[in-house]
Design brief:
The structure is a homodimer.
Chain A lengths: L8 H19 L4 E2 L1 H8 L3 H9 L11 E2 H12 L5 E6 L3 H9 L7 E8 L8 E2 L2 E5 L3 H8 L3 E4 L6 H10 L4 E4 L14 E3 L2 H14 L8
Parallel strand pairs in A: 3-4, 3-7, 4-6, 7-8, 8-9
Antiparallel strand pairs in A: 1-2, 5-6
């Protein structure tokens, strides 16, 4: 399977959802699935699924359905799950703690190697996979260990300056929970902003319409 | 502007993003914007934006661009932002606390009226907009105050049974942070699952590709 150039943003953003569904099928021991059955269970059309998969060379023989194991591995390859990129987390407040304790970074392709906070009462503690260090050590640590991605769970106000400094020290992607726009376009660095509000607004729409089909089950 | 039937899931899921962008334009005092300029800043095509808006009757005159104020209000109407539906939150752990303290429910069209937890050390406290009550009072409270939506931030394992009981007491939508599938399809209740992992996997893809355009800025 080739990682083709110029795959559209919309297609890429559907890949994790495919991966979630197909991983579930694999965990349930399902050996094969047709594009039609996959489409039905995901609220898409079979032709959209085939088109999406064709962007990456396709994953199966027409008429025979997809081999779930191979499809799952193919999607994992696209997403680089096995690369286990090094990541750090900055800001061990409520959302930072929730991620450290409950979020499975490995399952998404990341190895969370360290977390940082300014609060001396949490420095030195272990939360989930990571030891918490003093934020004063942040840039030395980044220079030495060269994580690829930083998770920003700092309070409002400091994210933009922090993001620029992290990028200056070689960070190549930011997972931003701060709710603040970072405006790093000029630096060419991917930023994935987590907008809880989008999800809640869609729920509101679906409740008003009495229509579960808009929501993401 | 009409709320048409049979608007596709994909269109509906883009509306909050439009609303975020256009709200930002309004806050910046921008009076008008063309579909082309809106498309460029959002990584979409002008024709897709026009098609999406036409699903709701359109919002502007061809050639003159959109009146930002009217467009913003039109999008807010579609999303029911002014309805301020009553919501409750169940589970005041790290993620629950983060939402109560930092998330602006009103801006997404919800009035968070109460939160619940089993832990006596947090019962009676105020976090953000909501007072925290004992979870033993949950169903009496729901019967009496009839919230439309419940936010599920409970630990792994109890979400499915809790969700069914809440729906039995009249809850019409669930915002699910538990990472557990709820399988409420048969009940016809919208469930919006928050999948942090999708966002992180897209970031991983974009970092590997050295391409910021897949991410959501």
């Amino acid at each position: 399977m080739d990682k083709k150039q110029n795959v559209s943003r919309a297609v890429i953003r559907r890949i994790p959802r495919y991966y979630r569904y197909v991983s579930m099928l694999r965990a349930n021991g399902v050996p094969r699935i047709s594009s039609r059955a996959l489409a039905e269970s995901m609220g898409l059309t079979a032709s959209q699924i085939r088109q999406d998969f064709n962007c990456f060379g396709g994953f199966g023989q027409q008429g025979y359905g997809y081999n779930v194991e191979k499809l799952c591995e193919g999607l994992a390859d696209i997403l680089g799950i096995h690369r286990q990129r090094k990541a750090i987390l900055v800001g061990v407040g409520n959302i930072g703690k929730a991620l450290l304790k409950n979020f499975d970074f490995k399952a998404s392709g990341f190895d969370l190697i360290c977390a940082f906070d300014a609060d001396k009462t949490v420095v030195g503690m272990d939360f989930g996979p990571a030891n918490i260090r003093d934020v004063a050590e942040l840039y030395d640590y980044v220079d030495q260990h060269q994580p690829e991605v930083a998770v920003l769970t700092v309070p409002h106000g400091i994210a933009p300056a922090l993001a620029r400094d992290l990028v200056g020290h070689g960070i190549r992607g930011l997972w931003n929970f701060t709710g603040e726009d970072l405006h790093l376009e000029g630096l060419g660095i991917p930023v994935e902003n987590v907008h809880f509000s989008d999800s809640l607004m869609i729920l509101g729409y679906a409740v008003d319409a009495g229509d579960p089909s808009a929501t993401d089950e």
